[in-house]
Each structure stands twice: as C-alpha cells, then as structure tokens.
Amino acid sequence: MKERILSLLIGYVLGSILTAEIIVRRKTGRPASEFGSGNPGMANIMRVFGFRAGIAVLAGDLLKTAAAALLSCFLFPEQGQILVLYAGLGAVTGHNWPLWNRLKGGKGVSVSCMAIFLYSPLWGLIANAAGMLVVLFTGYLPLGAVVITTLYAIFAILFLGKEAAVLSAILAAIMFQRHFQGLVRMVRGEERRNAQLFRKK
Predict the structure, then answer these.
(1) What is the rounded distance in angstroms from the CA atom of residue 106 to the CA atom of residue 93?
(2) pLDDT digits (tens, 9 = 90+) for 19-29
(3) pTM passes above 0.85
(4) Can you spell out the DSSP letters for 60-91?
(5) Which percentage of the chain shows pLDDT scores above 70?
C-alpha cells in the first residue's frame, strides 16, 4: 500500500507541472487563465495561440504522465504494472487541481489518455481511438473525452481485474466531473464544436 500511495504522490507532483502555463508565460509573461476560456489545457491554448503551441502543451502533458509512471515502476518494480494507473491517477489529480495554482488546473484529457494507454496499450488504444472518432463525427470534445475513460473503465471491469477497474472508474468519474458543464452546453446546443476551436498559427 505504501508504494501505491507514493506513486500517487509522484504522479501528483509531476502532474502539477502545467505545460500550458509554462508555454503561455514564456510567450506572454502572463498566466494561461487570462486567455480564452482560462483553462490551462491543449484545446484552449491551441485555440488562442495556434496549432504548434497546442501540440507543445500536448507533448508536455504526455511526457509528464509517462515520467510519473516510469519513475514509480522504477522505484517499486516488485509492485508490477498497476503502479502505472496509480501514478496516472496522481498525475490527473495534480494536473486538474495543482496546489501551487490554487487548485485551478486543466481537465486532464491528455494525461488520462496517456495513463490508460501505458497501463494497457490494447484497450487504451481502442478507447482513445473511439473517443477521437466521436469527436471527429460529432465535433464535441467533452463527449469524446468522457467516452474515452468510460469505455476504458468498462474494458477494465471486464478484462483488467478489480484494482484496475476501481482506478479506471475513478478516472472516468473525474473526467465526467471536469466536462459536466461542457456536456450540459452540448445538450443545449451551446457547446463549440472542434472545428471552431483550432486554427493554425
């Protein structure tokens, strides 16, 4: 249990490094909260600063998740692959609610996608691909994000064991909570579609 808690903490610390904040402050000297929706995530940064800035945010968020998972497995190899999910959950929590930024973080989509893929490449790839297809055909980013973690949680329940299923369900619940308002706007016809979000720069 100690190793699992430490993996959560490792994930939280690395997840709290908001790539969007680093990039925006470097470009403007101002916090990401002052631009667009104020969300320090890939979609908002891509919409405001262009494609390359958004991809840089995505790369940073994927790398910090991978680093948390690899470090946890390196420090506690006897605990097995399950530490990837603990580190991933910690990274999502740190990304979404960083203490240094008054608990104002992102929505954890990229971090969650990376965590589930690292734990189970097959089911993670299927879930991520399904979510991307949902976004492609509907245009709604919140719907695709929720589909990814919900579908993965179902796979975990069916194929990956009880502990992985519980952690995956928590990730799905966090994703739903972070995108609840977006889903409500979608139902009301007020949510922007992805074609309106991204532009090259």
Answers:
(1) 10
(2) 999 999 988 98
(3) yes
(4) HHHHHHHHHHHHHHHH-GGG-THHHHHHHHHH
(5) 96
